[in-house]
Amino acid sequence: MPVEGACPCCRGPLHKIGEDVAERLVVAPTTFRVLVTRRPRYGCRSCEGAIVQAPAPARIVEGGILTEALIAQLLVSKYADHVPLYRQA
Fold it and tell me: What are the Transposase IS66 zinc-finger binding domain coordinates in residue numbering (predicted)?
């Protein structure tokens, strides 16, 4: 998003036109919670040509909901603890 909050095309003011919501699963021992990331979108009313949004946070699997901690827990349970995937809660 531009620092001054101006349209990159015409330098007019930007107005919020929506937001993207992303959900990810976070694991704590025997507890799961959903981590929600909101990224508002801003658009210019005068030129209607520019939509500005902050970049999405990096993920191991693009578009996936698993966090690094959950993937690590699954891998340790499967390969170190020899627990089949269907028995993992």
Answer: 6-48
Q: Is residue 27 within 8 Å of residue 55, measured between CB atoms?
A: no
83 and 74 in contact (C-beta within 8 Å)? no
Which pTM was predicted?
A: 0.54
Structure token digits, residue 68: 């690094």
Question: What pLDDT is attached to residue 4?
Answer: 64
Q: Which candidate, 23, 48, 21, places its Cα nearest to that of 33?
A: 23
Residue 57: closest CA among 36, 31, 27, 34: 36
Give the residue-averaged pLDDT of 26-46.
82
Cβ neighbors of 54 (< 8 A, separation 6 or more) are 1, 39, 40
